[in-house]
Amino acid sequence: MAFPGVTVIVGAASGIGRATAQLFVKRGCTKIVIGDVSTKGLSETKQQLLQVNPKAEVVDESCDVTSEDSVNHFFGQVNSNFGRIDHACNVAGVLMPGTSPEFSAKDFDTQFNINARGMWLCQRAELIQLLKQEPIYPSGSPSPIRGTIANVASMASLRVYDNLPSYCSSKFAILGFTKADAMRYGREHIRINAVCPGVIKTPLLGEVRDDDTTNIAEMTKEMALGRQGRPEEVAEGLYWLSSPQSSFVTGISLPVNGGKSLKRVFKGAD
Ligand SMILES: NC(=O)c1ccc[n+]([C@@H]2O[C@H](COP(=O)([O-])OP(=O)(O)OC[C@H]3O[C@@H](n4cnc5c(N)ncnc54)[C@H](O)[C@@H]3O)[C@@H](O)[C@H]2O)c1
């Protein structure tokens, strides 16, 4: 199987970003740039990608999304290596719980700067590059393609959790710039979407066992499928939103959450 073009994944040193990079290479992507603030994790991901396909061109480059200079430098490296972007996945994020009275403004800024502002800085850099590129006209495609962007938001973008006001606000913000830019740039043949994962077993949640009786277990019980998701299952959503198979889809927030909101919808609680 071949997956066309150049893929960029920011937040690829761990969890969902790493699984997404692996899936793209497994599905035939041979040109990929991976970025993260954790350079150690990034080089582990690179080794794993080269095990999947030793001939893949894999560029690992440090990227701290809290720094405008770092983001711009990272995308400069993307350009000097490959000269274009076909698919971008913005994944980097942190989870800092805490109710508002106990949460410091400094922590609010840290979380917002990574999850929302940082992701927007990446999306802006990607759009600037995509708009410079001529669209391609694949045979059989109903419309030209200039590129895709897929952002990782959260179930906390669609509903609130009373111990996560800062996280929720950073994740709600992602849907704002995802949808606004999707509306503006659809006619330029750029599709921009988001996935909204539920509880996914990654280092972000710590080493929590499936049967643990913490808040995570409570959240998992709300899911129709009754289990935590795997990063590979979120990667499938990002891959689909990047692929020609989703050619008529833009501006959506795709829940990948094991049916987490069903109970509430049927009870009419939302
Ligand atoms: N795990 C879940 O249950 C879950 C649920 C909903 C949404 N999400 C979202 O999925 C995304 C990925 O999280 P994950 O679960 O894979 O966690 P993870 O901790 O495994 O991965 C997060 C990655 O982001 C990177 N990162 C953190 N700060 C950064 C910065 N300043 N610049 C660049 N990279 C930075 C980390 O180094 C790490 O590699 C996050 O945006 C998270 O909010 C996760």
Automatic annotation (TrEMBL):
- What is the protein name stated in its UniProt record? Uncharacterized protein
Return the PANTHER family for the record. DEHYDROGENASES, SHORT CHAIN (PTHR24321), SHORT-CHAIN DEHYDROGENASE_REDUCTASE FAMILY, PUTATIVE (AFU_ORTHOLOGUE AFUA_5G14340)-RELATED (PTHR24321:SF12)
Q: Name one Pfam family in it.
A: adh_short_C2
Q: Which SUPFAM superfamilies match?
A: NAD(P)-binding Rossmann-fold domains (SSF51735)
Family membership, please give it. Answer: Belongs to the short-chain dehydrogenases/reductases (SDR) family.
Q: Which InterPro entries match?
A: NAD(P)-bd_dom_sf (IPR036291), SDR_fam (IPR002347)
The question of whether RNA-binding is a record keyword is answered with no
- Which UniProt keywords are present, listed alphabetically? Oxidoreductase
The reply on keyword Isomerase is no
